[in-house]
Amino acid sequence: MHRRRRTALLLSVAIAAAPVLTACGNDAHPGAAAVVGGQRITVAQLENRVGEVRAAQRAAVPDESQYAQVIAKSGTLPRDVLHTMVLDQVLHRAARDAGVTVTRKEIQGMRGDLEEQVGGAKALEAAWLQQYGIPPQRLDENLRLQLEAQKLATSLGTDTGKPAFWNALSEASKKLDIDLNPRYGTWDVQKSSRADAKTPWVREVTAAGIQPTM
Asked: Which residue of 17, 23, 100, 109 sits 20 to 30 Å from the alpha carbon of 2, by its own alpha carbon?
């Protein structure tokens, strides 16, 4: 029996460049990059995640001049990574409130479908790193996020581009009482995004030969 493949979604953290503020930290939460649901995302944790991306980029681009170009094009990486870390918790809270869960089998199925589309595991890892700044060790985590978004939208009888979906994320943002360190911007509760984000964070995978299939 033919299995219907899921339309692949992904987090786009293409956030507009903005000047990094010089504040040393949030006075109310020293050492925190953000506080989400009363839990700190520390600057050290954020730097570790950014380091994962940089290490993966360095391994993928051994040429010094090319690597310098990669760095130049991803100058907002710390803010982009923090955006994803916070949004992960927002979406997870919204999914939990809606009774949505994602299984390991579902993640593996989605990954298998995408690998088939792009030509294997390494090709998929390279595409996610190059286009979306997701290092290989975070790929399954990112796919879980995509599945949560899909299943949450389905449970609400809508899709990820409609107001009902975003309203659910907005409610989750309110419950989590998100507080960003000023150096990384602010969190827009209504949009469930950093305030300077210009592009939606969920969109169909249609670039670089990754085409949704039915």
From this structure: 100
